[in-house]
Write a structure and sequence with these properties.
The protein has a 20-stranded parallel sheet that branches. A ten-stranded parallel sheet has the order 1-5-9-12-15-18-21-24-27-29, with no helix packed on it. It is globular, with a radius of gyration of 20 Å. It has one helix and 30 strands. By secondary structure, it is an all-beta fold.
Length: about 325
C-alpha cells in the first residue's frame, strides 16, 4: 500500500474511523504488509493491526486536523493513529514502524474554536501489544496521553517471553499542546501531555529518544509479568519543563508480588528547567518494587529553580528495592 492519501472529513460521533484494517486471524495469515509514503488524515484509528507478521509502516504522515473530534470525539476509547492487538484472533510479530510523522492536532491553534466537541488532541501515535519489532526514527507531536505505548504481551502463561525484543529508538517526542486544550472526559484544562513513552512488559530496549514538554518522561512496568524485564533504558534525553507540575523523568515499577527485575538505566540525560510557574517536581529517576537493577552514568539537572519550598528535587528515588547497583553521576541545582 503506497502513495495513497486516506482522508476522513466527518467530525465527531462515537464510531471508530479506520483507514486500513488488516486481520490475519489465528494463524497470522498476513505476511510482509508494507504501508509506505501514505498520508492519513482525520482518523481515530488509521491503521489497526491484528494477525500480521512483519508489517512495515514507513515514511507516512498521520494528521488530525480536528484533533480528537476527527476520530471518536468524546468516546473514551483511545484515539491513536496505529493500534496493534494481540489476542486469540492473532498476533503482531516483528513490526517495523519507522520514519513516520504523527501530528495529534494538525489544524490551527486555538482548539476552543476549531474542536468544539472535545477540545482535545489525539491520545497518542502508536498503541498496543507487539511481539518483537522496532519503533524508531519517528516524529510525534501534539498528543495528550501516551505517544508511544507498548502494552503487555498477551500469553497463555505469564512465564512465556515475547518471541523477540521490541526496540524503541531515536524517536522525537514533543508534548507541547495547542492553546485551550481540555481533558475530553472532564473538561479540565490540559497544559502538558502525559507520559512521553510507556511500556508494560519486558524484553524492550528504549534508547536514544528525545522526550520533552511532558508531565512524565519514560515509564516502564512489569504488568504482572513473571519473567525478568531484561530491559535497557539507555542514552535517552528527557527535558521536563514544569508549566504545572512535573513528575518522574524515568519511572520503573513492579507490581505487588511481581518485582521489576534485571534492567539497566544508563547514560540518560534528564533536565528539569523551571519556567517560573511550576510548583512541583518529583524524582529524576524513580523506581518501585525492583530487584537486580543497574543505574549508572546518568546525569540529572535542575536548572533555574528558586528556593520555593514546595519543590521536591529528588535525583534518584526508590522503595521496596533489592540489589540496586552502581548509582552514580547526578548533578543537582545547576543554573546553566
Amino acid at each position: 500500500i503506497e502513495n495513497i492519501t486516506f482522508l476522513n472529513t466527518s467530525v465527531g460521533g462515537t464510531t471508530t474511523k479506520s483507514a486500513i484494517y488488516p486481520s490475519g486471524q489465528t494463524q497470522n495469515g498476513i505476511f510482509d504488509l508494507n504501508i509506505q509514503n501514505c498520508t492519513f488524515s482525520g482518523f481515530s484509528r488509521a491503521i489497526f493491526l491484528n494477525g500480521v507478521t512483519r508489517p512495515r509502516i514507513h515514511n507516512n504522515t498521520f494528521l488530525a486536523p480536528n484533533g480528537r473530534d476527527g476520530g471518536t470525539s468524546t468516546n473514551s476509547a483511545p484515539n491513536v493513529f496505529i493500534w496493534s492487538v494481540i489476542n486469540n484472533n492473532g498476533s503482531v510479530i516483528d513490526a517495523s514502524i519507522q520514519h513516520n510523522t504523527f501530528d495529534g492536532y494538525s489544524g490551527r491553534n486555538g482548539l476552543l474554536v476549531d474542536v468544539p466537541s472535545s477540545q482535545a488532541c489525539m491520545d497518542g501515535s502508536t498503541y498496543g501489544a507487539f511481539d518483537g519489532g522496532i519503533i524508531a526514527n519517528n516524529i510525534v507531536r501534539r498528543w495528550q496521553y501516551e505517544p508511544i505505548a507498548a502494552s503487555r504481551i498477551v500469553r497463555t502463561t505469564l512465564t512465556t517471553k515475547p518471541l523477540a525484543p521490541l526496540i524503541i529508538s531515536n524517536n522525537s517526542i514533543d508534548g507541547d499542546l495547542p492553546a485551550n486544550c481540555q481533558n475530553p472526559s472532564t473538561g479540565d484544562p490540559v497544559v502538558l501531555a502525559g507520559w512521553g513513552l510507556r511500556v508494560d512488559g519486558g524484553l524492550i530496549n528504549i534508547s536514544d529518544n528525545v522526550v520533552k514538554n511532558c508531565l512524565n518522561g519514560i515509564y516502564c512496568a512489569t504488568a504482572e509479568e513473571a519473567y525478568d524485564l531484561e530491559m535497557a533504558i539507555i542514552d535517552n534525553v528527557v527535558r521536563m519543563s514544569p508549566d504545572y507540575e512535573s513528575n518522574s523523568g524515568i519511572y520503573v515499577s513492579g507490581d505487588v508480588g511481581y518485582a521489576a527485575t534485571d534492567f539497566t538505566i544508563e547514560g540518560n540525560q534528564i533536565t528539569y528547567e523551571w519556567n517560573g510557574s511550576g510548583t512541583f517536581v518529583r524524582a529524576g529517576i524513580q523506581m518501585a518494587r525492583v530487584s537486580d537493577v543497574q543505574v549508572r552514568y546518568n546525569t540529572i539537572r535542575y536548572k533555574n529553580f528558586t528556593s520555593n519550598a514546595s519543590f521536591q528535587k529528588q535525583g534518584i528515588w526508590f522503595y521496596t528495592a533489592n540489589n540496586v547497583k552502581e548509582i552514580a553521576k547526578m548533578s543537582d541545582g545547576e543554573t546553566n
